[in-house]
Each structure stands twice: as C-alpha cells, then as structure tokens.
Specification:
The protein folds into 2 domains: 36 residues; 77 residues, N-utilization substance G protein NusG, insert domain (mini-chromosome maintenance (MCM) complex, domain 2, Sandwich), CATH 2.60.320.10. It is 32% helix and 38% strand. The protein is built from 2 helices and 7 strands. It binds zinc ion.
Length: 119
C-alpha cells in the first residue's frame, strides 16, 4: 500500500464522521426549534400578500374569507386556527390541519390566501 492511498482512505473516513455529525446536529437543531417554539397569540390573514384581517388566538371565532368565486372558512378554536372548509380545487389548506405556533402558516394557493400565526 502506498502512502498516497492510505492518506486518501483516512480522509474518506473523516468525511463520513463529519457527515454523521452534521446529521446529528441537524436533528438536534430541529428538535430544539420544535420544542421551544413559542405559541402564537395572533392570527393574521393575508389576501394576495396584503394583511386584511387579524384575530386573537384566544377568541374562538369563524371567519369566512371570500376570494372571487371561492371561499375558505377559517376557524379559531381552543387556541388553534384551521381551515374547516374551502372550495379550492386542491384542498391543501384544509388538509394542513390545525396550527398554533408562532411562525406557522396555512396557505391556500388557488385563493392566494395565507393564514399566519404571529407572536
Ligand atoms: Zn385551499
């Protein structure tokens, strides 16, 4: 075995260790963000990128968002916000379920609607 090839093998092993460390670090960061994320207090409704309505997450309410010939029913209940009904073709907004943490969003692309939880 030449000196050159053994050096190359050492670098490869080091790369693998580094790679594993990065994965562990990434997983830790993900968990820290997930568990320390603050609960939000406000629900902001953006229509076409513009802030149109704000609600408190503490007050249970139902808001019907009307977009051209469509609508989304936004429900705030027990500190969570979700879309209970929508007539958009993909229903992604309904399937996104409940959110409550600062920075989380529900997006309805067909209706250009963004629901964001803020602190
Ligand atoms: Zn939708």
């Amino acid at each position: 075995m030449s000196e050159e090839s053994s050096k190359k093998r050492l670098i490869n092993k080091f790369d693998i260790i580094l790679f594993i460390l990065l994965i562990i670090l990434g997983a830790c960061a993900f968990l820290i963000i997930k568990f320390t994320r603050a609960e939000g207090k406000t629900v902001n409704i953006y229509s076409d990128g513009e802030l149109t309505e704000s609600f408190s997450l503490d007050d249970d309410t139902e808001y019907v968002y009307i977009w051209e010939d469509g609508n989304n029913v936004i429900v705030i209940e027990n500190g969570y916000v979700y879309v209970s009904h929508a007539d958009c073709p993909d229903k992604v907004c309904v399937n996104q379920g409940e959110i409550k943490n600062d920075g989380e969003t529900i997006v309805c692309i067909p209706h250009r609607l963004v629901i964001e939880v803020d602190e």
